[in-house]
C-alpha cells in the first residue's frame, strides 16, 4: 500500500492523489483541473490519512466447508442418537427382567417334576420368540438403529464429498 497525499485546490478542498499519478491532470469535485506534482514535489504535500481496511469481499465459508460441517453434524447426531437409543430404548426380554431373588422364590415352589421340565427347557436356551411384546419392541429398536445408521452414512458421505472436492481443488491449485 503506497502513501497517498492531499493536493490542495483553490476551492479549499483537498484531493487525495497517489504517487503513481505524478505529472497527470486530475479534476477536483468543484470542477477545477489540477496538475499533480512530480514525485519529488509530492513529498512536500501533506500525507492523506490511511483509509479504513474493508473486510474481505469473499465468502467466509465455501460450499466444501459447509459440506464438511453438515456431515460432521450428521455423524455427531448419529452418535448421540445411537447412544441414547442403545442406553434407554434397548428392549430387555421379560425372562431377563426377573431378579435372582424372584427366581429363587419361584424355584423354591416348584415340584421335582416341574424343576426337571424347567431344567430341560433351559438346556435348549431361553425361547424369547414367544414374547410378542418383546418382538414388537425389538422391531422398533432395530428400526431406530437403522435410521441412526442412515444418518451416519449420510454424514460420512457429506464429509467424503467435502474432502474429495477439497482435495481436487488443491490438485488444481498445485498444477497452476
Structure, explained:
There is one protein chain. It is built from five helices and five strands, in the order ββββαβαααα. By secondary structure, it is mainly alpha-helical. It has two domains: 5-47, no CATH class; 63-170. β1 and β2 form a beta hairpin.
Summarize the structure.
About 55% of the residues lie in helices and about 10% in strands.
Counting DSSP H or I runs of 4 or more residues, the number of helices is 5
Mean pLDDT over the residues: 82
Distance separating the two termini: 27 Å
| Tally of individual domains | 2
Strand order of the largest sheet: 2-1-5
Element layout with pairings:
Blueprint: E1 5-8, E2 14-17, E3 25-27, E4 33-35, H1 39-42, E5 46-47, H2 63-88, H3 100-108, H4 112-123, H5 132-175
Antiparallel strand pairs: 1-2, 1-5, 3-4
Helix pairs in contact: 2-5
Keywords:
176 residues, mainly alpha, two-stranded antiparallel sheet, 54% helix
Amino acid at each position: 500500500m503506497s502513501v497517498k497525499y492531499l493536493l490542495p485546490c483553490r476551492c479549499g478542498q483537498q484531493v487525495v492523489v497517489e504517487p503513481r499519478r505524478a505529472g497527470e491532470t486530475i479534476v477536483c469535485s468543484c470542477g477545477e483541473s489540477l496538475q499533480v506534482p512530480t514525485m519529488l514535489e509530492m513529498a512536500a504535500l501533506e500525507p492523506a490519512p490511511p483509509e479504513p481496511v474493508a473486510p474481505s469481499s469473499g465468502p467466509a465459508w465455501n460450499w466444501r466447508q459447509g459440506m464438511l460441517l453438515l456431515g460432521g453434524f450428521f455423524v455427531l447426531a448419529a452418535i448421540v442418537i445411537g447412544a441414547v437409543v442403545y442406553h434407554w430404548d434397548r428392549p430387555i426380554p421379560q425372562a431377563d427382567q426377573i431378579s435372582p431373588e424372584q427366581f429363587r422364590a419361584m424355584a423354591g415352589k416348584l415340584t421335582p417334576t416341574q424343576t426337571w421340565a424347567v431344567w430341560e427347557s433351559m438346556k435348549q436356551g431361553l425361547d424369547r420368540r414367544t414374547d410378542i411384546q418383546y418382538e414388537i419392541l425389538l422391531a422398533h429398536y432395530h428400526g431406530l438403529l437403522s435410521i441412526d445408521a442412515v444418518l451416519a452414512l449420510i454424514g460420512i458421505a457429506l464429509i467424503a464429498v467435502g474432502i474429495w472436492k477439497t482435495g481436487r481443488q488443491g490438485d488444481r491449485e498445485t498444477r497452476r
